[in-house]
Design brief:
The chain is mainly α. It contains 15 helices and three strands. The longest helix has 21 residues, at 63-83.
């Protein structure tokens, strides 16, 4: 997906001023014209100005969210042009037609929808009609419990035993013990790791949040062994990490779960819920909605046991 993302305009402050500083009539005129002539750069400028001034997170919207929105908006504009439709006139039926063209992974389709809907909200803000994609959604046919199915304690132990470098071990434990997302792991820098206090700070997490998390003793010791003078703790790309994870799964002889590396985060949530309940899992994974975390409690109920040692705590 990353190779198709259209990145936000480089001069974001200028983009914001160019749109937010316009009169209501001029903003509508420019937005309508851009929609009618399928002017992608102008529409993306509108999208980012809207997101950073009127969106839910405003100026704290993460760069990753801006990229995903641009990606979805670009796909929607491409479809609209091929279908002979203009963005500012889209209806619920158009949303269903666009959704029918989705192929590939469900998460990719959800990114398209998120960006497409953000683009239409921006057009509405500009006064260019009230376009909609309706209640269209992407369903992948999987049971939610199956999607978050964690690795067992024995499987996690097998993966850790198969790690051939301290860095790979740290990579596994950052998700399995600390609950970090892949993007958070790849962005983590040593300046945000306190080996003395056994804490790490996640900056610009999902939704632009910042959080300081405790580290297990085994994660702390693993990081201490893997520290080698780099700025980032895991100086590799998302793709490199997924490849390393796929190779490790084969060596450990365990079954792949979901998206591979992300399943380690599900494992952390399930183990935290088993030890400390849903509130502990919610704090570790940093889900704002408690309902989202209930699935981990359901999974934890299947394997009630003492896992303090397996969590690496003392």
């Amino acid at each position: 997906m990353n190779s198709l993302i259209v990145r936000p305009p480089g001069d974001l402050p200028g983009t914001i001023d160019a749109w937010a500083g316009l009169s209501t009539g001029e903003r509508k005129r420019r937005a309508m014209h851009a929609s009618m002539v399928y002017d992608l750069p102008t529409l993306l400028g509108l999208l980012h100005a809207y997101t950073l001034t009127r969106g839910h997170k405003g100026a704290t919207t993460s760069p990753r969210t801006l990229e995903v929105y641009a990606y979805g908006a670009t796909r929607l504009l491409s479809w609209a042009k091929s279908a002979g439709r203009m963005l500012h006139t889209l209806t619920e039926d158009d949303g269903a037609r666009w959704r029918a063209t989705f192929t590939g992974k469900p998460q990719t389709g959800r990114a398209w929808l998120a960006g497409g809907r953000a683009m239409l909200r921006a057009l509405t803000w500009a006064g260019a009609g009230t376009p909609t994609l309706g209640a269209t959604s992407v369903y992948d046919g999987e049971d939610v419990g199956e999607k978050v199915r964690p690795w067992s304690d024995a499987e996690l132990a097998a993966m850790l035993a198969s790690c051939d470098t301290p860095e790979l071990e740290s990579l596994i434990l950052l998700a399995a013990d600390a609950g970090l997302r892949l993007a958070e792991v790849c962005a983590l820098v040593w300046d945000d790791v306190n080996l003395t206090d056994r804490t790490l700070t996640v900056r610009l997490g999902k939704g632009g949040t910042t959080a300081t998390l405790p580290m297990s003793l085994r994660l702390t010791e693993s990081l201490r062994r893997s520290k080698n003078g780099t700025v980032r703790v895991i100086p590799h790309t998302h793709r490199d990490v997924q490849r390393a994870m796929d190779s490790l799964i084969v060596r450990a002889g365990v079954e792949k779960r979901g998206r591979g590396y992300h399943a380690l985060r599900h494992t952390a949530g399930t183990r935290a819920a088993r030890v400390g309940g849903v509130l502990a899992a919610q704090r570790l994974l940093r889900h704002r909605n408690l309902n989202t975390i209930q699935i981990y409690a359901r999974l934890a109920d299947d394997e009630l046991r003492d896992v303090v040692e397996t969590m690496g705590e003392t």
